[in-house]
Amino acid sequence: MATHPMVRFLDRTTPPHIVTLILLTGLGALSMNIFLPSLPRMTAHFATDYRLMQLSVALYLAVNAALQILIGPISDRYGRRPVFLWGVAVFMLATLGCLFSPTIEIFLLFRMLQAVVVVGLVLGRAVVRDMYPADQAASQIGYVTMGMAVVPMIGPAIGGVLDESFGWQANFWMLFGLGGLVLALTWRDLGETACPGSGSFAAQFRQYPELLTSRRFWGYCLAAAFASGAFFAYLGGAPYVGSVVFGLSPAAVGFYFGAPAMGYFFGNWISGRYSVRAGINAMVLWGTLISASGLMVSLILFLLGFKTALVFFGFMTFVGLGNGMVLPNATSGMLSVRPHLAGTASGLGGAMMVGGGAALSALAGMLLTGGYGAYPLIGIMLAASLLAVVAILYTIRREKRVLG
Q1: Cβ neighbours of residue 246 closer than 8 Å, sequence gap 6 or more
Q2: HSE, side-chain direction, 13 A CA sphere, residue 8
Q3: pLDDT tens-digit series, residues 175-202
Q4: pLDDT tens digits, one per residue of 137-157
Q5: Can you tell me the distance from the alpha carbon of 100 to that of 268, in angstroms, rounded to the nearest whole number?
Q6: pTM (2 d.p.)
Q7: Which of 13, 225, 297, 339 is deepest in the core (most CB within 10 A)?
Q8: Whole-Å CA distances, 325 to 77, 267, 269, 330, 375
Q9: CA 13 centroid distance within chain
Q10: What dotted CATH number matches 18-193+207-403?
């Protein structure tokens, strides 16, 4: 497509407006974290233990990862628009299932089905890559996810207030209503940006080796996976740290929980502003270094005895800031390795990111109940951030060898 495609808001004959993409990706982010301050209360409601209740995060992320492998090729074959519409509709039905679940097992089943809303994240990135070339796509993805960052920043705070005022179910009623609004907006505004493929669905999957044999694709994927893995570990463990280790109320947990999202907002602003000028590799490298440095300082302060909620959550801002620089640029790198497979690359790369995140989230939930305070969570996040640094350094070194 042209570098500056024509876009008319609420006109489905043109590519979607950036507002539509922000809301589509934001719905998935809200679904992931709005109810996190309610996890302790939901644990009591379903008469279960926190480790099982925390699977509502880990299982969601695992299914999220698996669906991304399917969504990318499906959208490359049949187009972005129908996949968007069906995904949001199924999400709404799954949300009703969560609301009326009589047991934790049924709740977890519908919670996993809710993960279909990942179509917004996967295809939001693919749509941007359909519309723009590589460096400009990184900038545009940065702006889209900068807007999306507002959602996880305020989502847990809203969720905590709703929980205290109306109970945990209010969070899911809100998701259902927002799903309906997003579905209507998508129907009216989102024009098709991809030329549907002519091959079979199986043929789409046979193109995976073209991506998997690219070392650059793996480098960008691993950098993004480890960077986002630190944040997903935070998603799984921070509610426990806030409510049990620091004794905060659901509303207070929701307030503090938004610290990384605040950093993510500014990190995405930096990406949108400077990715074209600095290049995606430099932005990813600096982002990983910022995340690792913030966690290192946090660990040192804890070891020195400054074990407070303000220190723990405050330094998580650096994780968000780093991720805001890493993810748009690493994603653009992934999608640019084989531009004709943008949807497939988005899905496969996203699956690697979220799959690793699901594992780290579950690990954080298991280790935190051992009586070690916040140390296990900080340690997991720091290790993941350092591995992200190694991954992007390998990618840069590999690129220099190829170009040299």
Answers
A1: 308, 309, 312
A2: 4
A3: 999 999 989 988 888 777 666 655 555 6
A4: 666 666 666 656 567 667 777
A5: 37
A6: 0.70
A7: 225
A8: 31, 5, 8, 9, 26
A9: 29
A10: 1.20.1250.20
Residue where the block lists tokens 């809100």: 174
Residue given tokens 């109810």 in the structure block: 35
| Side chain identity, residue 266 | F
- Cα separation, 175 vs 96, in Å, equals 9
Q: What is the pLDDT of residues 210-248, one digit of tens each?
A: 777 778 888 888 998 899 888 888 877 888 888 888 888
Q: What is the 3-state secondary structure (H, E, C) of the chain?
A: CCCCCCCCCCCCCCCCCHHHHHHHHHHHHHHHHCCHHHHHHHHHHCCCCHHHHCHHHHHHHHHHHHHHHHHHHHHHHHCHHHHHHHHHHHHHHHHHHHHCCCCHHHHHHHHHHHHHHHHHHHHHHHHHHHHCCHHHHHHHHHHHHHHHHHHHHHHHHHHHHHHHHHCCHHHHHHHHHHHHHHHHHHHHHCCCCCCCCCCCHHHHHCCHHHHHCCHHHHHHHHHHHHHHHHHHHHHHHHHHHHHHHCCCCHHHHHHHHCHHHHHHHHHHHHHHHHHHHHCHHHHHHHHHHHHHHHHHHHHHHHHCCCCCHHHHHHHHHHHHHHHHHHHHHHHHHHHHHCHHHHHHHHHHHHHHHHHHHHHHHHHHHHHHHHCCCCHHHHHHHHHHHHHHHHHHHHHHHHHHHHHC
Residue ranges of domains in the chain: 18-193+207-403
Orientation of helix 119-131 relative to helix 134-166, angle to 10°: 150
